[in-house]
């Protein structure tokens, strides 16, 4: 992942969570047959292969507060309901072939009495920029990507492998989390938790296959939660936190065998003169630090400093 991609991902999440409903005088309405006919596309064979049906439905920005009329369209696989006024998604329970659902920018307050337990093939779910405060009733046995950016979620204790066996990417930016505790997802590869209130890194030892950890703009003061079990971690972003103790950098050794990209800028500790050299000395596989490639000269200086420290230790009585 390049630093350009990192910035664009953060910008996209910020824009999505902050997006306002268009048109202050927007008419609120129920879903009609005309809406459905206008939004249908992508003709495909049905499950038995003997008939055809449209499987994609586009209903974004229609001012919808009721989608009861959708329940008869059981062949829908791709559905966009973004930027409406929806609180209740229960009519989707009959759409058992649904694979992809975009429902960001609505007014969903809870997963209770929502249909996700019945949507056993759903692989991609975006419910960013809603009014969610927890995830307690959410089930996603086939989910691979879950976007919860820009809600009001305060705890994530339900993120267990028994409920999200196949989850690979989890977006939790811009919520109200104060800890990483509660994520037990050994198959997770990408975790985005920027712009929360996280002070402590807890429970990360269960994320054995994590490759990307994005924690920009939280309130982290130390890195004690990094763990040897995170042996696949390649990208770590803790930009804009409160790490000021030079000893905190030593915890990076716990992920030194895999880490390739580290974004650490805008922490007080980066103001020290030997900051980059100290990091390179700890992380021999690192390729990029704070958006800048590691130079051969920096590697030479890091190696030299390591040798000097080693010699000092060996001569001590």
UniProtKB/TrEMBL annotation:
Specify residue ranges for compositional bias: Acidic residues: 1-15
Q: In which compartments does the protein localize? A: Cytoplasm, Cytoskeleton, Flagellum axoneme
Predominant subcellular localization, coarse grouping: cytoplasm
Q: What positions belong to coiled-coil segments?
A: none
Residues of the region (Disordered) are: 1-28
SMART domains in alphabetical order: LRR_SD22, LRR_TYP
- Domain of life from the UniProt record: Eukaryota
Name the keywords, alphabetized: Cell projection, Cilium, Coiled coil, Cytoplasm, Cytoskeleton, Flagellum, Leucine-rich repeat, Repeat
Q: In its UniProt entry, what is this protein called?
A: Leucine-rich repeat-containing protein 23
């Amino acid at each position: 992942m390049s630093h350009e991609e990192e910035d664009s991902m953060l910008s996209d999440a910020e824009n999505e969570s902050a997006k306002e409903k268009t048109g202050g005088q927007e008419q609120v309405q129920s879903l009609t047959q005309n809406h459905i006919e206008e939004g249908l596309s992508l003709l495909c064979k049905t499950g038995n292969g003997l008939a055809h049906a449209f499987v994609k439905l586009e209903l974004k920005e229609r001012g919808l507060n009721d989608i009861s009329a959708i329940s008869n369209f059981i062949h829908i696989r791709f559905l966009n309901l973004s930027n409406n006024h929806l609180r209740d998604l229960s009519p989707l329970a009959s759409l058992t072939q649904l694979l992809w659902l975009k429902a960001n920018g609505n007014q969903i307050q809870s997963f209770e009495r929502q249909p996700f337990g019945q949507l056993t093939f759903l692989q991609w779910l975006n419910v960013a920029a809603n009014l969610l405060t927890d995830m307690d009733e959410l089930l996603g046995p086939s989910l691979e990507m879950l976007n919860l950016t820009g809600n009001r979620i305060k705890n994530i204790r339900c993120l267990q492998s028994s409920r999200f066996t196949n989850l690979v990417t989890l977006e939790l930016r811009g919520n109200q989390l104060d800890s990483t505790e509660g994520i037990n997802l050994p198959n997770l590869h990408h975790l985005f938790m920027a712009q929360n209130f996280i002070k402590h890194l807890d429970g990360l030892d269960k994320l054995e296959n994590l490759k990307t950890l994005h924690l920009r703009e939280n309130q982290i003061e130390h890195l004690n939660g990094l763990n040897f079990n995170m042996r696949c971690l390649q990208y770590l972003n803790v930009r804009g936190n409160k790490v000021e103790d030079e000893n905190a950098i030593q915890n990076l050794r716990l992920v030194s065998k895999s880490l390739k990209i580290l974004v650490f800028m805008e922490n007080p500790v980066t103001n020290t003169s030997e900051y980059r050299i100290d990091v390179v000395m700890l992380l021999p596989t690192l390729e990029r630090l704070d958006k800048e490639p590691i130079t051969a000269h920096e590697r030479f200086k890091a190696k030299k400093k390591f040798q000097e420290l080693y010699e000092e230790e060996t001569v001590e009585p």
